[in-house]
Description:
- The chain is α+β, with helices and mostly antiparallel strands.
- The chain is 20% helix and 31% strand.
Amino acid sequence: xxxxxLLAAVVLGMLALPAGADPLLNPVFQDHAVLQRDRPIHLWGxxxxxxxxxxxxAAASVDARAxxxxxxxxxxPAMQAGGPYMLTVxxxxxxxxxxxxxxxGDVYLCSGQSNMAYPVMSALDAGSDVQISANDxxxxxxxxxxxxxxxxxxxxxxxxxxxxxxxxxxxFSAACYxxxxxxxxxxxxxxxxIQAPWSGANITAFMSADALHQTGVExxxxxxxxxxxxxxxDGLQRWGEVIEAWWRSKGLTPWTDPAVSAAWPxxxxxxxxxxxxxVPALDHFVGHVxxxxxxxxxxxxxxxxxxxxxxxLTEEDQTWVNGRFVAATFGYGEKRSYALASGLxxxxxxxxLVNVNCGWRGCGIFGxxxxxxxxxxxxxxxxxxxxxxxxxxxASVGTSPRVPWGATxxxxxxxxxxxxxxxxxxxxxxxxxQGESNTGAPAAYRQLLKLWMxxxxxxxxxxxxxxxxxxxxxxxxxxxxxxNSGWAQLRESQRLAVAEDANAALAVTIDIGxxxxxxxxxxxxxxxxxxxxxxxxxYGDKTVKPGPQPSSAVRNRKNVTVGFxxxxxxxxxxxxxxxxxxxxxxxxxxxCRFAAATIRGDTVSLIVxxxxxxxxxxxxxxxxxxxxxxxxxxxxxxxxxxxxxxGGHK
Length: 650
C-alpha cells in the first residue's frame, strides 16, 4: 500500500466514529481478528441505552438491544473455518463500526509467567524462525501487562491483531507461537493466538476474587483488596492492621519503639543493593530486612502537607512513620513516594521505618540519595540524610503476607485487568506455563490449579474448555542424593490436577530445562509437545498418546514393579541400558534411596535396597534431576510419586 493510500485509510477510519464516541464493539474485536469456528460467535459492546444493535458477518446477522447502562451482547451463528470476512455493527444514528479481514478458525489464549512471556527472538536458534514467520493464517494479539484491584470490562491499553510476520513474531511468546506453528501442520485452519502473561506472577494473581474465596485461606487479604478497590486509604489502613498482627504473632514490633534499632548495624552510606555491601550474612540473602532512619523537621515543615520519598526499591516494602503504618507497595526497581496524613509529622525528630521483602535479586533501597526525602507542598524538601540502620529477619520467622494489590504475589489483580476484559471471547483452548512462583507452597498448587481452570471456564462460558498445561522443567543442579524439592512437589501437583480433569493435558518438559537458568531457551520443543497434547485432547488424534504415565507400584519380595500406560511405542532408556532417576522411600525423606531399575515390557522393576521397607516410589524427583525413561518417540516419562502397594509376597 502506498503512503498516500495508507494515509487515506487512516483518515477514513478516524471519520467512521464521531470524535469521542465509544466503539460499538468491545475493543478486543479489531481488524485481522480470528473468531472461534464451530460455535456461536459471541459479540458484545456498548451503544446508546435502549438502542437496537445489528451485527452482520458474511450472510449471517443478529439483532440485540442495549440495556439501561448501554451494554449489549449477541451471538452470531456458528461458522466453519474460513474468511476473510467483514464484521459490521450498526446501531441507530451512530456511525457503523466495521472490522475487516476477519478469519474464522481456532483461538488459543496463552498465559502464565516469564517462561510464557519469553519471546521468540530469545529462543534457541530463533533467527531463521523469525525470518520465515510470515503466515497470514496465524494471527497474534498481545494483552499489555496491567493490574487492577477490581475487575474491568475493557482492556486498559489498546490491542491489535496482527498476522504472523517477523516484526510481530519476534517479541511474541515463543511457547505460544511455536505451539501454533506446530499445531497448524496437522490442523489446517486459521489460528488466533492471544498472549497474556506476567513474569514472576503467582497463580493467585490470575484468579478471580470469587475463585480465591473458595480456598478459604485468603479472606483477610481479599477483604483488604476489596476495600482498597473502593477507597485506597481504607484498604491501606486495613492492610496495616493485617501486617502488624502478623509481625506481632512473631514477637516483632519495631515500629512501636525506635530504641530497639540502637543495636542494629549501620547501613553503608548511600544504601544500595544489599548483596553488594560485602556483608557475608547478606551476600545471598533473600527475605525481609528492616531499615530505619530519622528526619528532623521544624514546626513549619511538620505542619505542611508532605510526601515521603524513599527512592528506588525492590521488591516489596512496608512503611511506617512515627509508628503509624503508611503504605505497602510491590515493584521491581520502582520509586516509592507516599502521601503523609495531616498531623502524622511533628516538630523535631521523626522516625521512618521500612521493611523490605525481596525474594529474588537486586534487593534493597537504592538510587541517588537525593531521591530520599520528605517533600513539602511548598516545594521544598528535607533529605533523609541521617544514618540508616538495618536488621535482617531470620528465615525461621517466615514471610509476611504479601500485599494483595501487588502484581506478582497479589490476588486477582492480573485477572481483573488482563483476563476479565476478554469477556466470553470464543476460545478453542488455553495454554498455561506457570508455577515457578508457587514452588514455595507446592502442595497447595494442586487445588489452586483446579480452581483456576474452573474459574476461567466460567469466565469464557465453556464448562469443557480444554487446558494445555506445561509441567515445570528441570531447574538447578542434579541432586547427589534424594532431596526434598518444591519444584518436584509442584510438578506432582500439576500432574495430579491434570489427571483429575478430563479436559486437560500435560506437556512434560523435565528434560528440556536449564540446570543453570530459570528460562530454558528450547521453546520450540515446548511448543511441539503442547501441539501433540492438543492433537490428542482437543482434536481426537488417537495416534498420539501422552507419554509414559505411572499406573501402579506393587511390592513383591525384593522388587517393586511400577506399571506404565500412555507410551508411544515401548518404554526405553536413553544413554544407558537401564533408566535412572527412580527412588524408593519409607515415611521420611531420610529413608529415600536411589533404586536400580530394569525395563520389562510396559513395567519398570526396582530392586529394594537392603534394610528398606518402601512405602513410596518417586521418579525424576528434585529441582533439576537427571532421569532417562522415555518412550520410542522420545517423550519423557512424567515425574511422579506413588504409594507402594503390597503384593503377594514380601
